[in-house]
């Protein structure tokens, strides 16, 4: 879908906002499949951001922590089945409204990457733009 949208995105100097999750920058025990997919997003969209930099398009990667959704009831373990063991969670869950507001503010500033939690910032080893 991103490939199909690129010509229009570049022409309109648009923005792709990628919901990567803290799992893209920090270990997430009990959620191997989910974490692997988020690490893949990180590589793809960080590279795409670099390629688009001189063409006018922008990529913003967001890495929220745990959000109050029902995702935890469907998370897959390393065997590809729904995880039945207690999954790790560090810190408080964020509300969807809190995350949406942070994304909106980051998009207004054309941030490159936003990490919303202290654990994510420590794991990634940099100062976040949020």
Structure summary:
This protein has 130 residues and is an alpha/beta fold. Helices cover 40% and strands 11% of the residues. It has a single domain (16-113), classed as NAD(P)-binding Rossmann-like Domain (Rossmann fold).
Considering the chains and any ligands shown, give keywords for the structure.
40% helix; three-stranded parallel sheet; Rossmann fold; alpha/beta; 130 residues; 4 helices
Describe the structure.
The protein has about 130 residues and is an alpha/beta fold. The protein has one domain: NAD(P)-binding Rossmann-like Domain (Rossmann fold). About 40% of the residues lie in helices and about 10% in strands. It has 4 helices and 3 strands, in the order H-E-H-E-H-E-H. Strands 1-2-3 form a 3-stranded parallel sheet, with helices on both faces. Helix 2 links the parallel strand 1 and strand 2. The chain is globular, with a radius of gyration of 15 Å. The protein starts with a helix and ends in a 6-residue tail after the last helix. The relative contact order is 0.19. The mean pLDDT is about 85.
Question: How many domain regions?
Answer: 1
The CATH architecture designation is: 3-Layer(aba) Sandwich
Largest sheet: 3 strands, parallel
Count of DSSP strands: 3
Tell me the helix content: 40-55%
Q: Order of strands side by side in the largest beta sheet?
A: 1-2-3
Uncertain runs: none
> Oligomeric state of the chains?
single chain
CATH fold title: Rossmann fold
CATH class: Alpha Beta
Tell me the Rg in angstroms: 15 Å
**Form type:** globular
CATH superfamily: NAD(P)-binding Rossmann-like Domain
Count of individual helical segments = 4
């Amino acid at each position: 879908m991103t490939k199909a949208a690129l010509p229009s995105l570049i022409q309109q100097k648009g923005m792709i906002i990628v919901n990567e999750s803290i799992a893209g920058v920090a270990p997430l025990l009990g959620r191997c499949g989910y974490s692997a997919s988020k690490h893949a997003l990180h590589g793809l969209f960080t590279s795409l951001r670099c390629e688009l930099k001189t063409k006018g398009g922008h990529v913003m990667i967001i890495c929220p922590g745990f959000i109050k959704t029902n995702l935890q009831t469907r998370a897959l373990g390393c065997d590809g089945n729904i995880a039945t063991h207690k999954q790790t969670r560090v810190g408080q869950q964020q509300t969807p409204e809190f995350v949406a507001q942070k994304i909106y503010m980051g998009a207004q500033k054309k941030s490159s990457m936003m990490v919303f939690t202290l654990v994510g910032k420590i794991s990634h080893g940099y100062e976040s733009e949020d």
